[in-house]
Amino acid sequence: MIQMNNVVKKYPNGVVATNGITVDIRQGEFVYVVGPSGAGKSTFIKLMYREEKATSGDVIVNGINLTSLKQSRIPKMRRQIGIVFQDFKLLPRLTVYENVAFAMEVIEEQPKKIRQRVLEVLELVGLKHKARMLPSELSGGEQQRIAIARSIVNMPKVVIADEPTGNLDPETSWEIMNIFEEINARGTTIVMATHNREIVNTIRRRVIAIEGGMIARDEYGGDYGYEG
Question: Does the record bear Signal in its keywords (predicted)?
Fold first, then answer.
């Protein structure tokens, strides 16, 4: 599903964020990306949806080489990937329903199919009853659930989550993790960058640790491995 072959990302200021990373993530895996601040985790994640472009090496997601992908084709590529951010990124003037439906409208899906699928994913995240509300009327945890619903409404094969529980209290974080586990159980690949050691140590999955722009550890059923 995701392949990186000797990937280097060097920023204009000379900082080398990833230094020769090679990794394979298979269809259906659940992978945590961990590491100290400044280690290169965010760049590693951003390379997967071409928010950042590799300086050298290949980044292949769902059969598409993102390193050589033309700028004009990036939006279409991103529609095949679910992306969840720490700060939700919901459209404030659209209702819950409209926020999720928007992801299908941009690919010009049929209205009947949009309604059916949007209500289906809102049911999955437990917020079908709040479809007519605005994001400002929801709690942080509810907003993140809507962001997750939006990320999966087009049935992507992979969901990339960058600190999805970073702004949430512990109880809400576990609710969000339960949703991710359900999505993964349905066959979707999950790649999640996180600082939450309790979640990583409790829900054991594959752990990729990034240090100094390189993979320091890659183990199945691993723990968080850092203090604090």
Answer: no
